[in-house]
Specification:
The protein is mainly beta. Helices cover 7% and strands 43% of the residues. It has one domain (3-213): Single-stranded right-handed beta-helix, Pectin lyase-like (Pectate Lyase C-like), CATH 2.160.20.
């Protein structure tokens, strides 16, 4: 296992992390079915996933979206932008292992302004600790900007990769709070930067850490 973590507390030039004007963005609201609701009560995982599969640069709906136990799988070379009222809400389930957003063996992904609310208050499995907000595995050049992640059954963000580390991961201005296990867990990473971020009130099952680096 190799873990290199850098904490940076000064301002980061946004031009180094974001470049909005070079690409066209597709509003993924156009993938939703007719007469869709805007209160986060209906599972639209299938429709959102199709938009993520078909387009690389997307704007998420400007209202809460309910995501089921399958989660959203992000492909390489994606830029995902969340509007002011956008929110990803994790649907209740009983699985022992699940994530709301998966980054599995991908590269060059930017996620901006995410608000993710986990299902710790709605989980009915009764055991386990592996319900993740964002699961980053064997991935490279991943940036998460200006986001909030809370109430996950397990970790807010997991960074790992087994025999292959996740590399060049930037967690920039992210508020991670009230998750049941850890705010951020790193098991295998290189060049991981946690920048101007706040991690608090992890509670529910050990180790209940803000940042946990595990062998």
């Amino acid at each position: 296992m190799f873990v290199f973590v850098f904490f940076i507390f000064n301002e980061v030039n946004s031009n180094e992390l974001q470049c909005y004007n070079k690409f066209e963005f597709f509003d993924i609201t156009n993938c939703l079915p007719p007469n869709y609701v805007k209160d986060g009560s209906v599972d639209y995982t299938e429709f959102i996933q199709k938009g993520l599969n078909d387009f690389s640069n997307v704007i998420m709906p400007d209202f809460p979206i309910l995501i089921n136990e399958s989660g959203l799988k992000i492909k390489s070379n994606s830029h995902i932008y969340f509007k002011d009222n956008s929110k990803v809400v994790t649907k209740s389930n009983s699985l022992n292992f699940f994530a709301t957003i998966w980054l599995l063996d991908v590269k060059n992904v930017i996620i901006d302004n995410l608000v993710l609310v986990g299902n710790r208050d709605k989980y009915f499995g009764g055991k386990g600790e592996w319900g993740f907000g964002i699961y980053i595995d064997k991935s490279d050049n991943i940036t998460i900007n200006n986001s909030k992640i809370s109430n996950c059954w397990g970790d807010g963000i997991y960074i790992g990769g087994g025999s292959k580390p996740s590399t060049n991961v930037f967690i920039n201005k992210v508020n991670i709070f009230s998750n049941r296990r850890n705010g951020i867990t790193i098991t295998n990473g290189e060049n991981v930067h946690i920048i101007d971020s706040y991690i608090s009130t992890s509670n529910g099952t050990p180790p209940m850490a803000g940042l946990c680096i595990e062998p």
